[in-house]
Design a protein that fits this description.
Strand order of the largest sheet: 3-4-2-1-5-6
CATH topology: Undecaprenyl pyrophosphate synthetase
CATH architecture: 3-Layer(aba) Sandwich
Distance between the termini: 42 Å
Number of strands: 6
Helix content: 40-55%
Shape: globular
Strand content: 5-15%
Largest sheet: 6 strands, parallel
């Protein structure tokens, strides 16, 4: 699908390299229409695909989506099953369009998923690892604190096995043990639905991110809404602690 590319033309030197999306508001979108929450997730999945295509079209190099958090297991069983089913379908759809030159990385602890789904995730990562046009990161069974704890355990094991000098541990070293190893930090973090919190998403990687909030629910979030966020981002002065 082609879109009217306005932002790329207007701000070629100020486009964010990495945009993170907290896909919020699917359940409320459905409730407003008297529908079960799973219908909101279906519409949210359609929005996800539109935004991925548009980001690729305007030249965004890295995009991250919060699809399912470590806390989301507390939701009703039928809603969880609907989300996982949509996730399975997405992986199958991507396999059919593997020629899009989009590298896919799954963030989070994959060990909780069944063997079939986990193998599909790993196979997609392997088959797309050399693609360079854009990198798509999908956070499933992901929590920022959990990610840091897993990284700390990894580093601790290396230290216990005399595989590293403790003086070598710095931000760069630790970052290489996170799920996002080799990925630039988030420049712009977008959360729709009116909520104003990070909700445990990429908390290390978003240390200097610019935040953009909107009352638009995720299923209604459009390329035009993304344009607004990027235009707002372009007006921010990013000093990273300097003056």
């Amino acid at each position: 699908m082609a879109y009217n590319i306005t932002v790329k033309d207007m701000l070629p030197s100020q486009m964010p390299v990495h945009i993170g999306f907290i896909m919020d508001g699917n359940g409320r979108w459905a409730k407003k229409r008297g529908l079960p929450r799973k219908f909101g997730h279906r519409e949210g999945a359609k929005t996800f695909e539109k935004i991925v295509d548009y980001c690729k079209e305007i030249g965004i190099k890295y995009i991250s989506f919060y699809a399912f958090s470590t806390e989301n297991w507390k939701r009703p069983k039928d809603e969880i099953e609907a989300i996982i089913d949509l996730f399975r379908k997405y992986i199958d759809d991507v396999r059919e369009h593997i020629d899009k030159d989009v590298k896919v990385i799954f963030l989070g602890d994959k060990s909780v998923f069944d063997d079939v789904l986990r193998k599909k995730m790993l196979k997609l990562e392997e088959d797309s690892k050399d693609f360079t046009t854009m990198t798509l990161l999908i956070a499933v069974n992901y929590g920022g604190r959990d990610e840091i704890i897993r990284a700390v355990r990894n580093v601790a094991i290396q230290y216990k096995n005399n595989q590293l000098d403790i003086s070598s541990i710095n931000e760069d070293f630790f970052g290489k043990h996170l799920d996002t190893s080799g990925i630039p930090d988030v420049d712009l973090l977008i959360r729709p639905s009116g909520e104003m919190r990070l909700s445990n998403f990429l908390i290390w990687q978003s240390a200097y991110a610019e935040f953009y909030y909107t009352n638009v629910l995720w299923p209604d979030f459009s390329p035009k809404e993304l344009d607004k966020a990027i235009l707002d981002y372009s007006k921010r002065g990013r000093r990273f602690g300097g003056v």
